[in-house]
Amino acid sequence: MSQQRTPNGRPRSAGRPTLDEVALRAGVGRGTVSRVVNGSPQVSPEARAAVQKAIDELGYVPNRAARALVTQRTDSVALVVSESGERVFGEPFFAGVVRGISSALAETQLQLWLAMAQSPAERQRVEHHLTNQHVDGVMLLSLHDADPLPELLERRGLPVVLGGRPAQMLADDEQLNFTAQLSQLSYVDADNEGGARIAVGHLLDRQRRRIAAIAGPQDMAVGVSRLTGYREAIERAGLPVDERLIAYGDFSEVSGELAVRELLERSPDVDAVFAASDLMAVGALRALRELGKRVPEDVALVGFDDTAIARQTDPPLTTVHQPVEAMGREMARLLIARIAGAASSSVMVETHLVRRASA
Fold this sequence. Notes:
Layout (H helix, E strand, L loop, with lengths): L18 H8 L3 H8 L7 H14 L5 H8 L4 E6 L3 H6 L1 H14 L5 E6 L3 H10 L7 E5 L7 H7 L4 E4 L12 H7 L3 E5 L1 H14 L5 E5 L5 H16 L9 E3 L4 H14 L5 E4 L2 H13 L9 E6 L12 E4 L2 H16 L6 E4 L2 E3 L5
Parallel strand pairs: 1-2, 1-3, 3-4, 4-5, 5-11, 6-7, 6-8, 8-9, 9-10
Antiparallel strand pairs: 10-12
């Protein structure tokens, strides 16, 4: 039996269809097929349709490695979360962001890979992988402290989009130089200060005056901003900010429970609590019950995020809504634009209060 050959006379492999076979089936040149596969706009609609029909009929799959050599693109982007896998897969916030990113990327050829980078070993592996040989761009979520990763990626020439501003962007004057460098990065963030002011203002409108706060981590901009909003709302009401009414958690349920116990031990007359996340509010609700406090009769409670769990508590949780999936979509949109050569830009999404029975 004679060996089958491609249109240019080379032996045809017994494996997947080749670019030459697609060209023959479509009745166009090899270069036209290559331009279609690589997304070039320099192809007529008729030729593009013929090539796509041939690709579908033959089941052609592009050789991604060869394509990357020509286009200098990998068609992959990374989402790196600086938290443990337990938190990433267990907390609604992260799931919502990933859903939003995935929905935006579904309209493109870009593939998403997810990495957790909390431990030193995880960080080392991730930093080794994040090069333009592996990904076209990177989204970073849940940054802590003065994380060097954004600057490292910028030096490598990778487009970067942050989910939330880094804490250094809220820093004082002595860090202005570093902050100026960070300001060149694209980011998507929620109006955390405004949301916290609305939440505490709602409690003040309900004639609560001993309003405690369970703040998030102060090595994250989101934790700093929500605490700042709490302080501003108290001050605007003409009340003093009592540091004994502020406790700190890490956005987890157990930290909210521990914080409420600490607060009530210091100040038994607390009549309201603003928790900087829904999960901390859930932990606070459980602790309040165990301490014999009725919600909202004795202590009103407001959370932040408006995750599904806020509707399932008893009583349902008053909370600040932030559009988490929309934030994920915006992160992906900004990254796609940066990969295409657009200048850095940022998006701030609005928050609003969702009133339920806990306050």
